[in-house]
Amino acid sequence: MKTIKCLLILMLTVVIQPLFSQRAAESPSWTKEVKIALIQMQVIFNEPETNLSKAEKLINRITEDFDIAVLPECFDLGWASPNAKELALPIPGMLTERLCAIAKTKNIHIVAGMNENDNGKIHNTAILIDSNGDIIGKHRKINILTEVEPMYSVGTSLAVFDTKFGKIGIPICADNSMPSIALAESLARMGCDLILSPSSWAVPQSFIENNEVYGATWTVPYKKIASTYKIPVVGCSNVGKVTCGVWKGWSCIGNSIVVTADSEVIVLPFGEDAELCQVVSVKLYNRPALGTSLPGINK
Question: Could you tell me if 218 and 179 are in contact, meaning their C-beta atoms sit under 8 angstroms apart?
Fold first, then answer.
């Protein structure tokens, strides 16, 4: 009788244990929370010193603790400035040195979108600075809006960067749109734990006058990435008038978006005057699976 009971227990263990293991693989546990400060700031075109000082003031104004500050796309000169060829600086350079000093003083990481001059080639670039004040990552925008930002050379690489929080990817704005979602998905397949995306979202005045609702262009791909790969996706946009370039007269409207790994959507205020900083906590999940064993893949 004891032998039969032992055999039954053994059989149940063999059957049930894989089920528990499978459920654990499908529902990864979260490992840490990261507090992200979205710096939804007004960007003045072609005034890098003014914009850098504004960014520093806004970061210093935040009273609660946070881990990473995210600045908008091309926060130094404004996105798609026709003056980028004359005004863009190398990376590293004078502006990045000051950002690095801010990160070190505040003991935070910073993600910032900037115009970059690389020996005469101009790039729409994002950088990742760690809390030691070192630039540990750089990404050049790939999905260039050719009719609006022809001054930028197309980026040619993707990478994730190791931090104390996990692996971070820093694709820029339209890199995360549905037509180019393969870029963000590639980062996820590289083991990315968190996507932080400097952005510059602009609309014509008719959009504002007609009280149209903004956001689906980004919430749809963000939610797809977040739900498929169990990673948070954060886009931080600037506010203010577009005073030069192809879209002169349009408005940058903030509306920065966070989609958590659990697909919760957080949206910051909309409007060309909606300058603010907001700290959002996101959970990072333990995602050990790679390749075809990633959750949601090949099913």
Answer: no
